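User: My advisor, Dr. K., asked me to get a structural model of this assembly before our group meeting. I'm new to this, so sorry if the format is off. These are the inputs:
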Amino acid sequence: MTEPSPDGPDTGTGKPFREALVALLPHLRAFARGLCGQAERADDLVQEAVLRAWTSRDSFRPGSNFKAWVFTITRNNFLNELRRYRRETQLEDGVAETMLVTRADQEDALNLNDLQRALDKLPPERREALLLIGASGFSYEEAAQVCGVAVGTMKSRVARGRAQLNVLLEETAAV
Amino acid sequence: MPSRRDPQGNAGAGKSGKQGWADGLRKLYDGVVSEPLPDSFEDLLKRLDKEGND
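Assistant: The format is fine. Below is the predicted structure of the whole assembly, which you can bring to the meeting.
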């Protein structure tokens, strides 16, 4: 029987597990910020997800996609919080999502604020699709893996999210 | 071979609003990536060290 390595499983990144995890922190923060729209909440989500990834590191399959694995944990953490919030408040889905993504800070330039607000109005599955494909650098196949859906579904979510975002931005520009 | 991302896609054509969102999304994302880690993450890193040594 093989003893687990004290450094954790091979991440395939050329870095030990802990180092590879820490190297992803800036990207996880950016992904989580895009998902929930609030800096502090996003950081809390990331910290919980990273601890979860660390404590379950022996479940990572060497040779699989390390970045996708960690992003999946972060994404699931966000969705679990969303579901918990809905249960606790017994609000309709749309209301709960809107409350979760309300921005607490206004430090960004105005046009980026408009974009973030439009992004916040998208259903979570479209928002995460655009973030994974448009910003995080995942391929459609990798993003589909992160979200646990078929590649065709991911492509559809990106297309619909892109179209909806365009409409929202045009509405903003028309005001 | 995985297909690489195509954030602009058809949305890149035409109006500036359509052209801008993909760049804007990337700017939002990269802006957070380039931020220094908040102090709260120091505690996280210490916990990783501690739990890794347990």
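One thing worth pointing out at the meeting: Chain A is about 70% helix and 0% strand.

User: Perfect, thanks a lot.
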